[in-house]
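User: quick one, sequence for these tokens?
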């Protein structure tokens, strides 16, 4: 049987295989990285393990970076809502009721909370 590989997954695997996160072994299993543009708050995400999302890039001086997020952070909740991967983080950020959104995350095994301003769209 001739099978054509899913190009999106293949590309994501190729990109992730060379990423510092994958090389450092900090993330057990990453899924395909979104090909969409970064969020208006200036971050790009990948699905992480155990119902989380991993920050894969940040826009320099964007709202997410100013709010304290860093590449490699494992996002676990947005505005008090547990996440189920990168798509749910995107959804929760877009539909948050407040200008300042609390993001529960883990960095280096430690729990942290970052606050991201999402209403100042001119800078983010």
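Assistant:
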């Amino acid at each position: 049987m001739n099978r054509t590989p899913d190009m999106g997954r293949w590309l994501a695997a190729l990109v992730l295989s060379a990423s510092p996160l994958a090389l450092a072994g900090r993330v057990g299993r990453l899924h395909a990285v979104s090909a969409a543009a970064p969020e208006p708050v200036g971050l790009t995400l990948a699905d992480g393990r155990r119902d989380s999302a991993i920050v894969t890039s940040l826009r320099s001086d964007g709202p997410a970076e100013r709010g304290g997020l860093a590449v490699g952070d494992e996002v676990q909740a947005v505005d008090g809502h547990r996440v189920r991967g990168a798509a749910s983080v995107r959804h929760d950020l877009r539909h948050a009721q407040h200008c300042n959104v609390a993001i529960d995350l883990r960095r280096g095994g430690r729990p942290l909370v970052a606050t991201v301003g999402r209403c100042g769209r001119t800078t983010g």
